[in-house]
């Protein structure tokens, strides 16, 4: 896999912070067992020696991620996350048509440490997300997801509880999107196998607001990566 240049990922930079648009399939941090794979933390440290990644995104999830250049900057953002002062907005494409209007999901999540999470009202930790439909297609919905807490897989499992699994998220019963399912008369050569439009689940960290060390808001908008943009373009064309 070809890794992008770190500089090309930067959406914002000042003396204290860098915000990058994380590509899909790149881990945020060193994964357990240290496979030596390139990740955002390693790329950031090559660019700025004291860099620390302030939060993580799932490996397949793309979008905005905050990196602190100094321990003071890291502490400041860590406190903002702890106090739920960081405003995060994700976009997801889900299977089916849904009209979410400020839908508030408050279902506790238990992380068993084995990369799997479950809804558990007794043992789980509090998890809250707000969902709004942005655009309805014939077979899919583009959804805005605002996580208030930051649990592992939170958006993915909360959507799944509404029978609105994210497209391509096989862990939560989301199905991949094929062009043949929406483009009339689409034919594929006899010996060819049709590939899904996206090779991952359709989730992107789109928008982020946090405070710099001077107390001023830092507002970030992360453009869709190529695969997500292509999916939206094809839905607009063939599934509207």
From TrEMBL:
The domain of life for this entry's organism is Bacteria
Gene3D superfamilies from the UniProt entry:
Pseudouridine synthase
Give the UniProt keywords, A-Z.
Isomerase
Q: Does the keyword ATP-binding apply?
A: no
Q: Which GO terms describe its molecular function?
A: catalytic activity, acting on RNA; pseudouridine synthase activity; RNA binding
Q: Which SUPFAM superfamilies does this one have?
A: Pseudouridine synthase
GO biological process per UniProt: enzyme-directed rRNA pseudouridine synthesis
Read off the Pfam families from this record: PseudoU_synth_2
**Which PROSITE patterns does this UniProt record tie to the protein?**
PSI_RLU (PS01129)
Q: Which residues form the Pseudouridine synthase RsuA/RluA-like domain?
A: 16-160
Family that this chain belongs to: Belongs to the pseudouridine synthase RluA family.
Q: Which PANTHER family match?
A: MITOCHONDRIAL RNA PSEUDOURIDINE SYNTHASE, RIBOSOMAL LARGE SUBUNIT PSEUDOURIDINE SYNTHASE D
Protein name, UniProt field: 23S rRNA pseudouridine955/2504/2580 synthase
Organism from which the protein derives: Pedobacter caeni
